[in-house]
Every structure is written in C-alpha cells, then in structure tokens.
User: Fold this.
Amino acid sequence: MYYINFIFILIIYVQINAQSFPFDTIVTFGDSNTDNGNVYNLTNHQWPIVSPYYEGRFTNGLIWLDKLKIPCIKNYAYGDATIDNDNLLVGFTGPNRTLVPGIRQQIVDYLAVNDINNVDLSRTLYVIWASGNEYFIDSNISSDIVVTALLTTVYDLLVVGIKYLIIMNLLPLQLYPGMNLNQNLTTLVINHNNRLISNITQIKLEYPHVSIQIFDIYSLIKTILSNNSLFNFNKVNACWNISNYSIISQCRNPSEYVFIDKYHFTSSIHEIIADNIQQFISSSLSISLKTFSHMNLCIFIFIIKIY
Assistant:
C-alpha cells in the first residue's frame, strides 16, 4: 500500500506539470515584429533610434516575445529580414543599408551553435514569423514564390526533429498606414494565407507526430483595426513620422495608437498579441499535452499492476 500511494502522488505531479505552460525555451525566427535588439547590435546602435524606440525594439516598449512567460528566449529575428537571402530577396536595414540574415539564414545560425541532440525538444517551442517584407520590396512578387520559400524554412526545422512549431500567417498589410487599401496587396495577402493553410495541412500529414500550428495574426490585427474603439485605440494612423531613418514628429499618447510608425505596432498592440499567443499555445497544444500525460499515466499504472 505504501508503494501505491507514492506512485499515485507521482502521477498527479506529471499531469499538473504537463497541463501548465509546457515550454522552458522558445526559439524565434523573423523580422522587426520579433526583433528585440539584434539589428540594434548589428548596426552598432544606429538603428532603431533609442529613444524613442525602446531598447533596440521596433516599437515604444516591450514586444510580444518579452511578454510571454517563458524562462529562456533564443531570438534570431532581425528587423527588415526577408525569408531567404540566398534564393529570394535580400533584406537590408538602417541608414547604412546593413545586410541582415534572412529567416532561413537565421535557422542555419541557430543550428550551427546549438547541438539539436542536446536540446530538450519536448520543452522547446519554435516560432516563425515572416511579416511580408518581400511584398514591400517587390510589389509584383508572386505569393506562391514567397510561401514556397517560407515552407522551406519549415522543412529546415522539421528535418532536424523539432516537436512544436508555430507559424504566423501574413498580416493585413493592405491596412497599414500609407498602403491606402492597395487592392493588389490585398490579393497577395489573401493568396499567401490561403496557400499557407493548404500546404501546412499537407505537411501535418507528412509529420503526424509534430505539432505544427498556424497562428492567425491576420484576423487578430484586422479585428483590432476594424473595431479599434472597442479596444480603446482611437488612432489607426502612425504615431511617429519617420523619414530617412530620422524621427520627424511624435504623438504624445502612443497607447491610443495601433501603429507606432508606418510599419510597426505600438507596445500596446504587442501586449494583445502576447495574450492571444499565450492562450493559443495552451489551447492548440492541449491534445499533445494530454497525450504526453496519458502516456505517463499508463506507464505508472502498469508498474502498479506488476508490483
């Protein structure tokens, strides 16, 4: 009876641990929406300008990644990054047009300094957020080409054995300040997101034991912009006027704005993004976590039967 009581307590611990926030580490690849200082360091603190930009972030405060409750953050994102410097368009940043690693190159950098065999993949979440810089660089680029490049980065991670991956779909770029509801951009964004869903659905069939999820950042931001007053945002134009990497003017109340400049969100929006991602992680991975918990439960019940 003594052994049964001990094992029962251990089972309860495993279930609680699995149902709490399941990751110790988050590894991120992306651009300015995720960069928390990489470009700032790369450009010798020239860009983004601090202040008013906050400590190397492309906003006025913390970004979504800062606000997640994950102990270890490995962030490889660089502002102005494209998906693949070698096979698509190249990203440059800052007043000196400094070359930044694309998302695929960021993954290469990560794998070069991290022995994947020593990574606890069951406790590590990978996130890819490509915000569509290709569409700003070349308005005539095909969404098929961009999505194909993005899928290549997904496979780059899958082949090394990762277990958990979140991919952001494309933001409603046509609603950004200065885009003037560009119809061509609207079509590109819709096609991009539809093709991403279709292809990720197929990849899930190829990798049934990997949790691959799309976070619908498109709908979240579009909902905020369409109902900005309900979210206590009075302004959908840019808070700061930036020209040639210089701050021309600033608003006094950035917390009322969706956009801090023409291409980036305020820290208040990042707060909402973080809250939604936090909830998404818990809900979208619940099946995987329950499976993990049940596997441990079955093992311990089997031991009880033996003894």
About this structure: Confidence is low (pLDDT under 50) at residues 1-19, 290-307.
